[in-house]
Every structure is written in structure tokens, then in C-alpha cells.
Design goal:
Layout (H helix, E strand, L loop, with lengths): L5 E5 L5 H10 L5 E5 L11 H16 L5 E4 L2 H12 L6 E2 L2 H11 L4 E6 L1 H6 L1 H9 L4 E6 L3 H7 L5 H11 L7 E4 L8 H7 L4 E4 H12 L17 E4 L6 H9 L5 E3 L3
Parallel strand pairs: 1-2, 1-3, 2-9, 3-4, 5-6, 5-7, 7-8, 9-10
Helix pairs in contact: 1-10, 2-3, 4-6, 4-10
The structure holds D-glutamic acid.
D-glutamic acid binds next to helix 3.
Length: 262
């Protein structure tokens, strides 16, 4: 069990923000990452398209004998998780439930904002999950369809990013916390922090990494000297994109990608 890799997927570079946190917490886990760059962006697609794409991605990852699959994508979590969980006999983990449980157990927020893709906000999954678990919480949603394409372009810290973030955040009331409901958005964290002072910014990748280390990875008990670092694999469904440049920046190292037709 321990030696089997973990599979992850997203529409592009966003899931790497989750990947990075998992590698920091669990450096000895091998990860197979699938970026469905051919179908990017997921945020503007219908629920049925997201379910179909999620199934296709999961079936590809299953070829690697993965022990679990992380849906490192808010859009796919919000619209396809329930469906795919009932179809495959393997742990499939999205970004929403562990985050809401973490907030319920550790925080006392009254007013919480969510920024995410159009599809995620349309599904209302974050709000339903938060309100079903946390009494009297007020939830404010904002779709931010430009952010994921800007992140793919590497425009996360420039003037355009600052103006776009300003525009998207301008109608929020005073918040206790803001959930980055799309895995591309942690790339804007510095820009967002400049705009929203004294508001806690919730990066789901960190919470998923903690969740995995507590629940899934039994090899964390193996002594360090007995563990071997494994080489991760990154697959993309289209390579005519800026993935490698952005990925090198996110991970601070040179990534090797393989093109795959699925
Ligand atoms: N990173 C994704 C998410 O968390 C998808 C963004 C997109 O493809 O539109 O929602």
C-alpha cells in the first residue's frame, strides 16, 4: 500500500499549489499529476462536462495503480466529486470537505468570503457545505473567471493582477476569512493580502496536505533513513501552453512533463 503513488488532477497549473503543500508535508510520497491543459478552463464548463472530464482523468490515473486520487481542482470537486466517489472503489478526495471540517474544528468565523470559478460558485457547494456544518455562518460568494487564465499566463503579481483582484474583492463586507476556492488562486495570495488586510486567507492545499498526512499515508511512521525519495510524474493533455514556465516558478525547480492523449 505504502509504495503506491497518489494521483492528482486539475485543469492546469492550479493543482500544483496543492501538490507543493503535499510534497512539503509528505516528501516521500510519489505523485502522478495530470494537468488537463487541453480542456482548460474547467470553470466555464457545464456540470456534465466536468463530470465527464473528471471520469476520464480518474480512469487515466488508475492505470498507475494509485492508492488515492486528489481532485486538486475546486471546479471538479464542487460538481463531480459525489458522482465519481460512487463510481470508483478508491479514496477520492476533493478540496471542499476537508477545508470545511478544518474551519469547523479550528476557527470561529462569522463572515466568510469565497472566491472561485463561475462553475464552482454556480454549484453553491461551498456555501451548502459550510452552512450544513457551521451554525450562523454568513457566506459571501464571488466568481472570478479571469483569475485562472491569468494564473496560467503567470500574471499573478503584476499591475493587471492588482487591478483585477481589487475589482473582484470590492463588494465584500468586512470578512473574518476568505477561502481561495480555486486551486489557481493561491498564486495570487500576496496580491490578495495587500488588498484584504487583517483577513485570514485560506489556502486549501495546506489543509489537504494535513488531511492526507493524518488519514492516508501510513508510511509517515517509517523512519526517515528508510525512506527513499521517488520521482514524481507530470502528464499534460496538451503542451501548447505556459505550464512549464509557471510550474518551474511555483515549485522552484525544473519540471519534466510528458504529453499524454487520453
Ligand atoms: N484550478 C481549478 C479550480 O480549482 C480550475 C480552474 C479552471 O480551469 O477554470 O477550480
Amino acid at each position: 500500500m505504502e509504495d503506491r503513488p497518489i494521483g492528482m488532477f486539475d485543469s492546469g497549473v492550479g493543482g500544483l499549489t496543492v501538490y507543493k503543500e503535499i510534497k512539503e508535508k509528505l516528501p516521500y510520497e510519489k505523485i502522478i499529476y495530470l494537468g488537463d491543459t487541453k480542456e482548460f478552463p474547467y470553470g466555464s464548463k457545464s456540470k456534465q462536462s466536468i463530470i465527464d472530464l473528471s471520469k476520464k482523468n480518474i480512469e487515466y490515473l488508475l492505470r498507475f495503480n494509485v492508492k488515492a486520487i486528489i481532485i486538486a481542482c475546486g471546479t471538479a470537486t464542487s460538481q463531480a466529486l459525489d458522482e465519481v466517489k460512487s463510481m470508483y472503489d478508491i479514496p477520492i478526495i476533493g478540496i471542499i470537505e476537508p477545508t470545511v471540517n478544518y474551519i469547523k474544528e479550528n476557527k470561529k468565523y462569522k463572515d466568510i468570503g469565497i472566491i472561485a470559478t463561475r462553475g464552482t460558485i454556480r454549484s453553491n457547494t461551498w456555501e451548502k457545505e459550510l452552512k450544513s456544518k457551521i451554525q450562523d455562518i454568513k457566506v459571501y460568494n464571488k466568481e472570478c473567471p479571469l483569475l485562472a487564465p491569468m494564473a496560467e499566463e503567470g500574471w499573478t503579481q503584476n499591475e493587471i493582477a492588482t487591478l483585477t483582484i481589487k475589482e473582484y474583492l470590492k463588494d465584500f463586507p468586512k470578512l473574518d476569512a476568505l477561502i481561495l476556492g480555486c486551486t489557481h488562486y493561491p498564486l495570487f495570495e500576496n496580491t490578495i493580502k495587500k488588498e484584504l488586510k487583517n483577513v485570514e486567507i485560506i489556502n486549501t492545499g495546506k489543509i489537504i496536505a494535513d488531511f492526507l498526512s493524518k488519514n492516508l499515508c501510513s508510511n509517515k511512521n517509517i523512519k526517515k533513513e528508510e525512506q527513499v525519495k521517488k520521482i514524481d510524474e507530470i502528464y499534460l493533455t496538451d503542451t501548447e501552453c505556459n505550464f512549464v514556465n509557471v510550474a518551474n516558478n511555483i515549485l522552484n525547480s525544473k519540471v519534466n512533463i510528458k504529453h499524454v492523449k487520453i
